[in-house]
Amino acid sequence: MIRILVADDHTVVRESLVAALIASGECQVIAEAADGVAAVEQALLLRPNVAVVDISMPKLNGIEVVRRLAVEAPEVRSLVLTMHEEEEYVLHMVHAGASGYLVKHAPMAELITAVKTLAAGEVYFGPYVSRVLAMQVQRPGRSFDDPYGALSIREREVFHLVVDGMTTKEIARKLEISTKTAENHRSRILEKLGVRNTAELVRYAVRKHLLD
Amino acid sequence: MIRILVADDHTVVRESLVAALIASGECQVIAEAADGVAAVEQALLLRPNVAVVDISMPKLNGIEVVRRLAVEAPEVRSLVLTMHEEEEYVLHMVHAGASGYLVKHAPMAELITAVKTLAAGEVYFGPYVSRVLAMQVQRPGRSFDDPYGALSIREREVFHLVVDGMTTKEIARKLEISTKTAENHRSRILEKLGVRNTAELVRYAVRKHLLD
DNA sequence: CTAAACATGGGTGTTTACCCCCATCGAATC
DNA sequence: GATTCGATGGGGGTAAACACCCATGTTTAG
């Protein structure tokens, strides 16, 4: 029987996870934690086979929890469960010593599979994570697929003004360039970022956290 | 036996919720949905007693789902389940016609209680929501200027499609209306929300948390 | 029942967005 | 020194967005 620790600050979610894991009949949940500090304490005390850890938690986030467990209790395998698919998270978690990474969009069956895989001493990364890791190996140092980074200085200025809702004419006036130049920049930005129109451009900015 | 619909885009969470609800032995889950559109469809088709709805969902967010169910299937009681505690969410949801509001920090037992309360025809709002509502009653001045709420059902559909980056023509095709009608809706939306163009519209959606 | 709101679609413009070419000039790179 | 890249500007065109009108039915609310 696989002994599991579940750490998630949302009580409804955590207790549901516990119920689902138990219902699978393949494991037992020996501990729960609602924040990072409690998760580490429980793990060090009870030494579960697998620690299912959410990233966003009060007091101590999931990344820190994984890092500490990797050092202080290496036999406890960490399975990160999160809703974030951003590459930065993936790399951080793997670097911190996580043995598995699963997004919350994955089906429950995959969680069970991941838990069993980790308990068997293997690592489990879904197809998405594997792809990110592969890209990282192929092009070390640079983040994969970062069209924004391909924008020139000037193009980034224009980019932010467009996202702010300014028209081409207003942008041209503000930057003291011709309307045509601003328009050219605009087209080039759309092309480089692979979006079709202004709406998709703004959504791109939101997705990449380029606002505020 | 209480018949329940569970709508949450995170599959792990959704399936766990289902497992936990079933484990309680007091209800049966007759349907699941991974996005807002599917949630409305399922609810209209199967008419559950209670619809447990997450706020952040693709295609159609929880607020919209509640609003539509309140109109098209008033006998289906909506229980909003979210991690957001912001006042604006609470007011929006209640105004949209939700019969219950629960944060994910609440214990599972409270979810069961809430479900049973709603199934019995009562409303269930936790202490936090009640407090917010009380404050609202105490200062009934300008409730909350909500230009989005001034949009009609159809206009909201168009709104979300525009924010998703679709052109007028694509929207018309999807909704099976003429390009001109879609264009008219579009203009009216810009006017009602007080924005000048698509970029500002998307930013509005971001600011009001109307995405996902 | 009447008035208002809504969804639909059309007309007629102007403005803006977007695309594909092109050229020049300077700076950096090789 | 030659080449690439960035920023600048333009021509010419299509498509889309946007702003005003307007008219019908239908539904809804007072």
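qc> Strands of chain B lie at 2-7, 27-33, 50-54, 77-82, 100-103, 124-125.
qc> done
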